[in-house]
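User: Can you write out an input/output pair for a complex, sequences first and structure second?

Assistant: Here is one pair. Inputs:
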Amino acid sequence: MPHTDADAVALARGGDSEAFRALVERHSRAVYRLAHRMTGSPHDAEDVVQETFLKAYRQLGRFESRANFGTWLHRIAVNCSIDLIRGRRHQEAGHDASDLETLDTVDDSRVDPSPERLMLSTEVKEQVTRAMDGLTPMERAAFVLRHFEGQSIEEISRALGLKANAAKHSIFRAVRKMRLALEPFVEGSEG
Amino acid sequence: MNHLNDDDLVLHYYGEMPAAEESRAESHLGGCRECQANYARLQRVMAYVDSAPAFEAPAGFERTAWARLEPALDRPGGWLSWFVFSPARLAFAAGVVALIGGAFLAGRLLPRTLPTAPAAQSAEKIRERILLVDLGEHLDRSQMVLVELTSADEDRGPVDISIERSRAEQLVAANRLYRQTAAATGDAAIASLLDDLERVLVDVAAGPATVSQEDLGSMRRRIESKELLFKVRVVSSQVRARQKAAVQERTSPSTLGS
């Protein structure tokens, strides 16, 4: 297995599929995490992972070897998530209860805390998940890009194909909904 | 300065206020307890959001991701390379799913004659037949893998499923395309069937070439619990029936004369 991403990219460009496999193994979890946040669905996240690596594979020739492969891939994943969200723009509705059930059962193998902490973090995760599921796909995408990805409103408006004002208002609405859904828990936990 | 409203606080929180407004907001926040309290509530909610652990991919995700991906990557001449996405190909797949989807849901097939001009009607029928052959072939291949897995020898120790694994690898990409198209065209029943099928195919493709009796039994139970084989057979036989009808229609004198 190539030691660095740069080595793997160089080999993959030459048609070495095992080198590309190494890149998939290194980065697919991070892409999944991002895609899950953006789309709110494990199923969609899997599709985004697939599309992201397919696009990356086809565009390897355009990747500048001095750049960071993870960052480049991350951008592709954001775009793939947005494409998927745009494709469903007409639906503009939160996920239904069955989606929530699926989300709740997803294995979280990353954390390794005490039972109390695990219980608490599971509760927080459920509440935040439900709050985010109350956002429309566009609000969710705008919020994730702003809050988790640190993109500016201008960047978000370009990425989502919205006017800056519309992007800004998507974020406002998202934050308003998040506050409405989560303030009771936050205030409660504050004592 | 007037109080900062919720939206102002969001812009302030993310550092998105224009510089002039930002300094005014800062100085107002410094002296207004009401706005301070509101801003603190916003900060607490955002911290709460940040404290939620992210959703992680399930165990073994890297392997399944590769199993889905690999067949679509490097087969320039192979039939699977056809399934690499393009609008035209997606439209083709949409045609396949739309064609059989209604039949599966409603228990009937598409009307055999359409109110179109003869030339267009003829072209449409040819296209329809090609679509049917394509989907039929995919379902037959999938069925073959399922049958082999459910009827593999028992009580003889580890079982070699390398052939089934290799077939599953080849079917994953096409299945995925059909499944996505079914979902995009709102055909929930077909999408659900193809989803169940894909999960089995991916697991087989990403799994070892030799499995224990226990693992094979669990795979078999999974296939049986979803009545997957039965459902694939139903759709497959509907496709075959429609293919046959299309051929008969093409060769009958009334069709030729129309």
